[in-house]
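Why do we bother with holo predictions? Because pocket geometry can differ from the apo form. Keep that in mind while you read this record for 5,6-dihydroxy-NADP.
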Amino acid sequence: MNNFTFCTPTRYLFGRDTEKETGRLTAGEMKSHNVLLVYGGQSAIRSGLLDRVRLSLTDAGVTFCELGGVKPNPTDDRVYEGIALAREKKIDGLVAVGGGSVIDTAKAIAAGTLYDGDFWDFYAGKTPVEKALPVGVVLTIPAAGSEGSGNSVITRIDGLHKISLRTDMVLRPKFAVMNPALTCTLPPYQTASGIADMMAHIMERYFSPTDNVEVTDRLSEGLLKAIIGEAAKVMATPDDYESRANIMWAGTLAHNGICGCGRAEDWTSHFMEHEISAVYNVTHGAGLAVVFPAWLTFMADVAPSKPAQFARRVFGVENRDDKGAALEGVSALKAFFGSIGLPVSFAELGIASPDIDLLVSKLHENKGDLVGGYRKLSPVETKAIYMLML
Ligand code: NZQ
Ligand code: ZN
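The structure, written out:
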């Protein structure tokens, strides 16, 4: 096991009606009194959530301005707009109402507002984020895990570069309000995509070159098994509060860092997917349902031991040969994704003729000559993995 630090300072307020506490947490936990309220397209308006949050802020004496209409796979133009607004209104914090796209936009604005330069410098790796305005979250979709992570993923429209920025602490939300009942309005495809995304967050950490991480391994396997079990229930009964609650909490634990303790991580599948969603604007989690089985198929050949453990412990595969077990695990994972309505190939994702050479060149332009932690992959190898998605 490697040395590690683990600190997850976000205050999670979990359960029914918790959005009514947003104002109290903003003024108290965040110590912000004039905030930028960031939200997405229609869902939070339609459900009345946005009005409840506005009322809660007002009741707590918090003033606010608004940036709405953030789209999935969020782009830099909204971040620049938000930074200009934040400076003009002299805000002292941000409240994000939505999912990963909204939260990541709020985080980028939080960092960019206090930076005397182009916020994209952080994403381009030119300079680290040293300070940011505090961010609070009202989560409406369990998926990206941004409510508990220090990360933010933004697409630069010029050149379609979708880049993930990772910070240890500075971009972790101060609080996350998590009411599972708010997720009952999610369309099935978004629910399923969120499930694939949170599973991928666990697996990116699980497929590690570090040995002797039995506790973190078992924690990860237990979470994966719980997600798979709850997924079947939530897809069959979308308004079942209990399974919504289990899925929502799993999404946070998948990505707040606890599944990475003591080990190096992989993240190849995410980087490969980010290129697909940058170029073809697909839903991130659905893209991962296509990428991860292909990556695992490749690994079954070249480094089968951990994929075999995954297959045996998560899917109960009994095959004693590592490669055989790993491949049975891939089939089980694909069957699971299929059972909740997710694609497992480019064609099923709606991309009839993907430009694989473009995806490979953008991947290595953004991430370097070799990509990955479980096994470092060259452009020839990442191309082979993209080909497995055809
Ligand atoms: O815009 P609205 O109308 O709200 O609709 C959204 C959006 O269309 C809808 N939605 C959200 N909550 C809803 C709802 N519809 C009905 N009822 C509700 N309660 O869902 C759609 C997707 O929203 P989005 O915020 O894009 O979803 P998600 O949370 O999956 O975020 C995806 C983004 O996060 C990034 C992804 O790459 C992608 O850009 N990620 C961020 C990470 C992080 N910051 O740590 C890690 C992840 O790996 C990921 O890369
Ligand atoms: Zn993800």
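The beta strands are 11-14, 34-39, 63-67, 93-98, 135-139, 151-156, 161-166, 175-178.
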